[in-house]
Amino acid sequence: MKTVFLVADGMAGWPLDALGGRTTLQAAATPTLDSLAPRSRCGLCRTVPEGMPPGSDVANMSLLGYDPRAHHTGRGPIEAAAQGLALDPDDLVWRMNLVNLTELSDEGVMLDYSSGHIGTAVAAPLVARLAEIAQGSPFQPVQGIQYRHLLVQRGGALTAAAGLNIRPPHDILDQLVAQDLAAFATFPELAAFLKAAHEFLRSEPTSQATSVWPWGQGRPLILPAFADRFGLSGAVVSAVDLVKGLGRAAGMDVLEVEGVTGLIDTNYEGKVRASLEFLERGDFVYLHVEAPDECGHMGDAELKKRAIELFDERIVAPVLAALKGEDATIVVTCDHFTPVVRRTHTEDPVPFLVFHTREPRADGPAVFDERTAGASGLFLPQGLDLLPFCLGRNA
Predict the structure, then answer these.
(1) Cα separation of 366 and 35, whole Å?
(2) Which residue of 75, 78, 207, 279 is surrounded by the most CB atoms within 10 Å?
(3) Which one, of 125, 157, 155, lies nearest residue 141 by Cα?
(4) pLDDT tens figures, 317-341
(5) Regarding beta strands 379-380 and 41-45, do their DSSP bridges make them parallel or antiparallel, or are they unpaired?
(6) CB count, 10 Å around CB of 381?
C-alpha cells in the first residue's frame, strides 16, 4: 500500500466577513476535495501540543509521527538538518530572517518578516557580507533560501543566549519590537551582531531588508529513523528547509524539485512528478505546499483562496488520478491554521481527510472544510497519531 500526505501549509482559517462568513477554504473552489469528502473519513487533529507554540516546525513534526515534546529543540536546528550542516552537540542554531524593521530601537516596528519575499539571488550576497561582518564573533551566518537563513553559534547551547525568548517575526507584524530587543540586549555579543547587521542592511539599496532577526534557536536535531518507526521507506518534497530538515533528520529521502518557491507560483507539477516517481519504489510521500500559509501571513484572503484552489487543481487532482486503481491511501490536511485576520498561526485543531482508493467510504461529508471535519465527531488529540491512524486502515 502506498500512502501520500498532501499538506497545504496554513490552509485552514477563520470565517471572514469579506467572504460572507466563510473561511478561505470554504470559499475556494475545490472540486477534487469535495468529490473525495463523501468517500472519505474526515475529522480534526490537534497538531500542536498544549503549551507549545503553533509553529510549522512543531506541527509538521507531529504530522510526520514524531512527538514535539520529546524531539523538538527549535526551528533553527530543523533547517540546519536540511542543509546537512556539521554541528557539535553544544552548538546553538538560530533561524535568521531577513526582515524589514522601521528602526532598531524601542520604537521600531516589524513591517515585514520576509523583506518583500526577497529572492535568493538578492539575499545571497547580503548573507555573504553578513558572514564577513560576523568574523571574530561566535556567530556564523549560513545562506538559506529567500528570506530564510541560519545563524550558527558555536558552543552557544552553553550560554545565556540559549534561553532567550525571541518572538517569531511573522507573529509580530506591525507591532513594536521593544521586548525582543530587550531580550537581545541581555546577550551583548548577539546584540552587537544585530546592530552591525542593521547598519549594513539599511544602507543597501538592493532589497527591502533592513535587519536580521535571529529566533527559534536550539541544539542540533536528532530523530529516530522513519523507516524504523513505521516500517516504511519515505520521502518529503517541499520548497522550505523546515520540511526538508525534518525529512533528512528522520532518514527519509528529500526530493529536490527545480522551480519550487514556497509561493503561489511554485512548481506544482514538478512536486507531483517527483512524488509519483518515488512511489514506484517507496511507500510514503509527504508532499508539502507552503503557499496558503504565506498568503495568510500577507493578510490576503483572495490570494489565499486562490492558493487553496491551485492546491486542489494541481496537487490533489493529479495525485488522485495517478493513484486510481492502485492500493493507496491519500491524506489531505494542513499543519496549522493561518487565519487571514491574524496573519499568523493559531493552535486550532486542523481538518483532515483520509481516502482509501480500494476501500472508499459512503458516509463522508458533502464537502471538505473546517466545519464539516469538526461535525464528523472524529477527533485525534495528538497530531502524531494521525499517521498511525491512517496506516491502520481504521480511518
Answers:
(1) 8
(2) 78
(3) 125
(4) 999 999 998 999 999 999 999 999 9
(5) parallel
(6) 11
